[in-house]
């Protein structure tokens, strides 16, 4: 501000008084310059003052926490009632809760109508008033509104709600009042606003309490919730331990559907963390479930996946057997597309092992499966791979025949015609040397 004042003083003294003729002639210009300088300086001064006031207002807004109770009680609070929820009579509590429900409904309606500012104003009022009903009721409401804030990227509101939840938890711990209903509500609220670390900590409290109670259905639900949280946070090892316990519970309860689901989750975790041996062992258990339930497509696909994972471990014979199992199941169930896929993987396994003649033999069988499945794309890919292998074997006549068959299919499908034309021209050129 001082620099601006100095600039004004300088502007007001833009030229000394002179008596000569030139200065007399220039006097109107000087007066105009002086007026312009004063006008500009005044405008800058007013803008600076306005900006300062605006910043002060903004700073004041930032310091106001809409979750804090105002000094003057809300008109909805019954007279004589303090923050302690036991001050309510049963009738007062019912009426008060009904009013809060109406506020929540009004906020949701405003938000749906595209007026988030009004909605948040009402929601914050509701959340402040929920405090009169105790930490449990407030926590549940904070989780509900917090989930909306998270889904709509309302970061400032999300931070306020998270801070209030943490405050409730801290106070409860200090007062030794963190009882099961409250830490369960905190766990759910933290989950809704994606505070995974705090949610996990709360659910571990829930888990300990449920274990002590001996409630097995509730134990399974809690383990499953905690496992999903750990998975979402990419803590695959921790999640796997929980799912393994869930598999054991499902088996004890003869719950085959749940056992299958938990095994599938374990397969995902082991595969994502590239624990191929553990993934294979789990998938072999899962294969037994699919076999019992005659889930043939899933079983075939599972055997192919197991083969892929054996190949990752360089256990080529085990991989071959798994691909062969996949083919056998698929062919027996007339799932010719799956049979074609299994043979393709087996042929590629032989190819990577430099067993080119064996790969060609399997591709011949793959063509039959693709033909039976009426899978023109599978046929085209098969001819392409056979052409490549014949090229490596320098059998140009067979390579030409394979690429020509691929080109015929490509033209029928209107797909990759130029590619097969180029490959065919390449082989013809090689034959002409």
Cα-atom Rg, whole angstroms? 37 Å
Distance between the termini: 88 Å
Shape: elongated
Instruction: Estimate percent helicity.
Output: over 70%
Secondary structure: elements and pairs:
Layout: H1 2-12, H2 21-63, H3 90-112, H4 116-130, H5 135-151, H6 155-174, H7 180-192, H8 196-213, H9 216-232, H10 236-252, H11 256-272, H12 276-292, H13 296-312, H14 316-332, H15 336-352, H16 356-372, H17 376-392, H18 396-413, H19 417-431
Keywords:
single chain, 433 residues, 19 helices, 80% helix
Overview of the structural elements:
The chain is mostly helical and 433 residues long. Among the domains are: 104 residues, no CATH class; 50 residues, no CATH class. 80% of the residues lie in helices and 0% in strands. It has 19 helices and no strands. Helix 11 runs antiparallel to helix 12 and helix 13 runs antiparallel to helix 14. It is elongated. The protein starts with a helix and ends with a helix. The N terminus is likely disordered.
State the gist of this model.
With 433 residues, the chain is mostly helical. The chain has helices at residues 2-12, 21-63, 90-112, 116-130, 135-151, 155-174, 180-192, 196-213, 216-232, 236-252, 256-272, 276-292, 296-312, 316-332, 336-352, 356-372, 376-392, 396-413, 417-431.
């Amino acid at each position: 501000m001082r620099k601006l004042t100095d600039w004004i003083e300088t502007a007001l003294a833009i030229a000394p008084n002179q008596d000569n003729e030139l200065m007399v002639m220039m006097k109107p210009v000087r007066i105009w310059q002086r007026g312009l300088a004063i006008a500009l300086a005044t405008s800058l001064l007013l803008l600076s003052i306005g900006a300062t006031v605006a910043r002060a207002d903004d700073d004041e807004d930032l310091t106001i926490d809409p979750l804090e109770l105002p000094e003057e009680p809300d008109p909805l609070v019954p007279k004589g009632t303090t923050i302690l929820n036991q001050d309510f009579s049963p009738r007062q509590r019912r009426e008060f809760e009904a009013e809060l429900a109406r506020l929540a409904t009004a906020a949701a309606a405003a938000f749906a109508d595209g007026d988030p500012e009004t909605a948040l104003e009402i929601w914050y009022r509701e959340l402040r008033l929920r405090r009169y009903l105790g930490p449990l009721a407030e926590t549940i409401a904070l989780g509900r509104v917090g989930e909306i804030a998270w889904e709509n990227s309302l970061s400032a509101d999300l931070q306020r709600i998270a801070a209030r939840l943490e405050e409730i938890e801290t106070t409860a711990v200090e007062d030794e009042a963190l009882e099961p209903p409250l830490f369960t509500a905190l766990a759910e609220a933290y989950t809704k606003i994606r505070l995974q670390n705090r949610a996990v900590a709360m659910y571990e409290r829930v888990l300990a309490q449920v274990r002590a109670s001996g409630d097995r259905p509730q134990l399974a639900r809690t383990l499953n919730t905690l496992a999903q949280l750990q998975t979402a946070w990419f803590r695959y090892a921790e999640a796997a331990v929980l799912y393994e316990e869930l598999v054991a519970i499902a088996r004890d309860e003869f719950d085959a559907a749940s056992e299958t689901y938990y095994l599938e989750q374990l397969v995902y975790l082991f595969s994502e963390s590239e624990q191929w041996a553990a993934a294979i062992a789990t998938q072999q258990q899962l294969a037994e479930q699919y076999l019992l339930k005659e889930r043939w497509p899933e079983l075939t696909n599972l055997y192919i996946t197991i083969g892929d994972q054996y190949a990752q471990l360089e256990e080529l014979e085990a991989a071959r057997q798994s691909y062969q199992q996949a083919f056998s199941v698929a062919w027996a169930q007339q799932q010719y597309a799956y049979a074609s896929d299994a043979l393709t993987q087996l042929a590629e396994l032989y190819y990577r092992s430099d067993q080119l003649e064996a790969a060609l033999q399997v591709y011949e069988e793959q063509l039959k499966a693709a033909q039976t499945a009426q899978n023109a794309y599978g046929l085209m890919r098969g001819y392409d791979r056979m052409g490549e292998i014949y090229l490596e074997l320098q059998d140009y006549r067979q390579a030409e025949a394979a690429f020509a068959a691929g080109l015929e299919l490509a033209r029928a499908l209107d797909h990759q015609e130029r590619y097969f034309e180029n490959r065919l021209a390449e082989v013809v050129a090689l034959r002409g040397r």
